[in-house]
Design goal:
There is one protein chain. This protein has helices at 2-20, 24-38, 43-54, 62-85, 97-116, 123-131. Helices cover 75% and strands 0% of the residues. It is globular, with a radius of gyration of 15 Å. The protein is mainly α. Helix 1 runs antiparallel to helix 2, helix 3 (43-54) packs antiparallel against helix 4 and helix 4 runs antiparallel to helix 5.
Amino acid sequence: MGSINSEMIRKSLYYMIKEQIKQHELKEQLVRYVDYQSNRGFPFGELLILHYNMFNGTKTEEIYSVAAAVEMLILSFDILDDFEDDDCKDKPWSMEPNVALNATTALLFLCISVIRNTRFKNKEQGISILSE
């Protein structure tokens, strides 16, 4: 089940980046970052799907978009943390720090936008957690 969820999350990430990010260089960088992150899987998104299913969430493909949004949030935090701790030397975002920092902002806004555009009834409550 995990590998199926990971693949669906990865596809959702690619789709959202390709559809929503207009600046070509930033789009390419984000895809590279997702490729790098996909090597370890998407445990936070998978956990979200697991909980959604455990609590009898309505069957919908939209849950993969929300799982991808959570992974965007985690990726943005990972990038920022690596710069703060100065331990990003072997990561793809270390090559162009200015683009990487722009990418974190794009990921955060895209994450919120994706969640806001779903049909889930508690989406605003979920988004509000990000701003607290």
